Amino acid sequence: MKIAVTSTGADQSSAVDARFGRAPWLHVFDTDSGEHTAIDNTANAQGRSGVGVTTAQRVADAGADVVLTGRLGPNAQRVLEGSGIKVVLGVDGTVRAAVDSYTDGR
């Protein structure tokens, strides 16, 4: 399973960014292989409009099965759900803690 998390920074100890489309970093964890990838999303985060949809497409292109974030708009949600990606909202804390909580069923 691949888990994507919105983040304020490039490392796993960074805080989860509550803003889906404007999150400067996306972290993708592959729970099967243990692989972790940090995706720089700063160019998109500074965009004027449509950033949620663009970020959703980046998450889908990364092969994510699940997204952990604080909140997201309806257009981004439609893209994610249309791609078969589960969305978990209201997530906070560090990126690593969010992934661990999700994989532990919390």
Topology:
Layout: E1 2-7, E2 25-30, E3 36-40, H1 42-45, H2 51-61, E4 66-68, H3 74-82, E5 86-88, H4 95-103
Parallel strand pairs: 1-4, 4-5
Antiparallel strand pairs: 1-2, 2-3
Helix pairs in contact: 2-3
Q: Can you give me a brief rundown of this structure?
A:
31% of the residues lie in helices and 22% in strands. The chain contains four helices and five strands.
Commentary on this structure:
α2 packs parallel to α3 (74-82). Strands 3-2-1-4-5 form a five-stranded mixed beta sheet, sandwiched between helices. It is built from four helices and five strands, in the order βββααβαβα. The model has no long low-confidence stretch (mean pLDDT 94). The protein is of the alpha/beta class and 106 residues long.
Which secondary-structure class do the elements indicate? alpha/beta
**How would you spell out the order of helices and strands?**
EEEHHEHEH
Q: Would you identify the regions where 5 or more consecutive residues have pLDDT less than 50?
A: none
Q: What level of helicity do the residues show? A: 25-40%
Structure summary, number of beta strands: 5
How far apart are the first and last residues' alpha carbons, in Å? 16 Å
Contiguous helical run count: 4
Strand order of the largest sheet: 3-2-1-4-5
Q: Sheet with the most strands?
A: 5 strands, mixed
* Strand-residue proportion: 15-25%
Gyration radius, in Å: 12 Å
Mean pLDDT score, rounded? 94
**Can you tell me the overall shape?**
globular
